[in-house]
Design a protein that fits this description.
ABC2_TM; mainly alpha
Length: 289
């Protein structure tokens, strides 16, 4: 006769990101809370999702497009610039907020147990909610200058978004966990966010990096953000060019066939490592906080 004893499990242990899917309702509540708290007392509220990227775009366009005359060498430079800015903004907001997510929710973590991964993942969803209005502006601007993308290009946009979301989640889990023990992590992330806009072809063309880096260019191209930004350029900017303008530009070779899978694998590797570190450190979050 078999005994009916229950198996014991370690308190606070879980299945990592799988628990996030199992607790989708809690995730939804956290996302709503994050949005309400962020815009509490704000006059514009969610409209800041439109104002901030537009102001950022105007500064870069005037400084680089007009003063440095980059718009002369890059047709439809405004579309080129903004298509990169919206994607980088999604990544920087995701990483910055997820790094602080555990520390900022210390009161909740001390009181009850729930999957700790919910906190950084919820900030990714909030960042995605801010990303969508920016994409709407990008689509509207692209349509004004003759945007006619193919279905293949639109699918590539979805793939680029997924790559950046995975990368942001992985790094958010990593730095969010480390930040509980070493608050200097926020300063490290701030420096990363300062560099990321310049570490991918947002403000300049990828050929400039290729010519400057030479044999080291493959490392630049293996950066998932570089690949994702170039996919956005290919999908939003390239279809707005006329036949004469297309001859003035050069797209990266094997962007979809080679570099997209490489970017996806690198992002998944970062996610795996971030989840591994997070699970090891999460056991003592409540004590450390």
């Amino acid at each position: 006769m078999k005994s009916s004893s229950n198996e014991l499990s370690t308190p606070g242990s879980g299945r990592g990101l799988l628990d996030v899917y199992s607790n989708r309702f809690l995730l939804k509540l956290l996302v709503r809370k994050e949005i309400k708290v962020r815009y509490r007392g704000s006059v514009l509220g969610l409209l800041w999702s439109y104002v901030k990227p537009l102001m950022q775009f105007m500064i870069y366009f005037v400084a680089l497009g007009i003063f440095l005359n980059l718009q002369k060498a890059t047709p439809n430079y405004a579309i080129y610039l903004f298509s990169g800015i919206v994607l980088v903004n999604f990544f920087t907001e995701s990483l910055g907020n997820s790094t602080r997510s555990i520390v900022e929710n210390r009161d909740l973590i001390r009181k009850i147990y729930l999957p700790r991964e919910l906190f950084p993942v919820s900030t990714i969803w909030v960042s995605a909610a801010h990303f969508m209005p920016q994409v709407v502006i990008l689509v509207g601007a692209a349509l004004l200058v003759g945007w006619e993308p193919s279905a293949y290009q639109l699918l590539a946009v979805v793939a680029a978004f997924i790559i950046v979301a995975i990368l942001g989640t992985g790094l958010g889990l990593l730095f969010g966990a480390i930040n509980v023990y070493f608050r200097d992590s926020e300063n490290i992330v701030d420096m990363i966010l300062m560099v990321v806009t310049w570490a991918s072809p947002v403000l300049y063309t990828w050929t400039m990096a290729r010519d400057a880096l030479g044999s080291w260019f493959f490392l630049y191209q293996a950066n998932p953000m570089t690949v994702a930004v170039e996919i956005f350029h290919w999908a939003f900017w390239y279809p707005t060019l006329g036949s004469e303008q297309i001859g003035m530009v050069e797209l990266p070779s094997d962007l979809i066939a080679l570099w997209l899978p490489v970017a996806l694998l690198v992002s998944l590797g970062v996610l795996f490592f971030g989840q591994l570190v997070f699970r090891r450190l999460a056991v003592h979050f409540a004590q450390e906080l």
